[in-house]
Amino acid sequence: MAFQSKKAKTLATAIDRDKLYSVSEAIALIKAHATAKFDETIEVALNLGVDPRHADQMVRGVVSLPKGTGKTVRVAVFAKDAKAEEARAAGADIVGAEDLIEAITNGNIDFDRCIATPDMMGMVGRVAKILGPKGMMPNPKLGSVTPNVGQAVKDAKGGQVEYRVEKAGIIHSGIGKASFSADDLRANFDALVDAVVKAKPSGAKGKYLRKAAISSSMGPGIRLDIAEIGAA
């Protein structure tokens, strides 16, 4: 515990809570202080000027991080016959139909992302109450209900992440690992912010991107200069 408190004090003195940092400065600080015994995830929080309780202010989508996520993503696919084989060939971890429904119903959710062919959605609806709250329900708008399951599996495993605004108007998303280079983290950061800005809903009024911060799994948040990001 003494080590942790010493580390916390070091972090507290290294970061000026009143300062708005450039993205490059923040990434450099985060990497310098991500000293946990595991490869910490680098996370971004974006505070948006929306009220997600209103349908016309919901912000949700997918973005492919150009440098990947650094995580191993387990993908489950609802498909039959040739489409099931296509999913397996693309690297899907779990492929099934009724058997996959049964496993999910029994609480066996050994995957991170879920994809389905359109013809399977009637079946998938039976577990919507289980997958929905976990953010795993296949959705055509997010590309996870598609006849092209092979490409969807490759995208999910290759660095594609979903983002969704929470009740407080904040989006949280990982952009890589502490072991990533600063340039790779910046490329992923820019891709995420660009996607969120382009997803600005029609109902959003006033300033859209209000605050931003970056942190590591075990570190404090560093506030970013919105003007430097270039999106308001």
* Fraction of residues in helix: 25-40%
Q: How would you write the strand order of the largest sheet?
A: 7-1-8-9
The whole-angstrom Rg is 20 Å
In whole angstroms, the N-to-C terminal distance is: 42 Å
Oligomerization state: single chain
The SSE string, one letter per element, is HHEEEHEHEHHHEEHEEH
Proportion of strand residues: 15-25%
Largest sheet: 4 strands, antiparallel
Content-based structural category: alpha/beta
Give the averaged pLDDT, no decimals: 89
The number of distinct β-strands equals 9
Low-confidence stretches: 1-5
State the helix count: 9
Any idea what the shape is?
A: globular
Provide tags for this entry:
232 residues; alpha/beta; 4-stranded antiparallel sheet; 3-stranded parallel sheet; 9 strands; 34% helix; globular; disordered N terminus
Describe this structure in words.
With 232 residues, this protein is α/β, with parallel strands linked by helices. Helices cover 34% and strands 20% of the residues. The chain is built from 9 helices and 9 strands. It has helices at residues 2-14, 23-33, 81-89, 98-105, 121-124, 128-131, 149-157, 182-198, 226-229; strands at residues 41-48, 60-64, 75-78, 94-96, 113-116, 160-164, 170-177, 209-216, 222-223. Strands 7-1-8-9 form a 4-stranded antiparallel sheet, with helices on one face. The protein has a 3-stranded parallel sheet with strand order 4-3-5, with helices on both faces. The protein is globular.
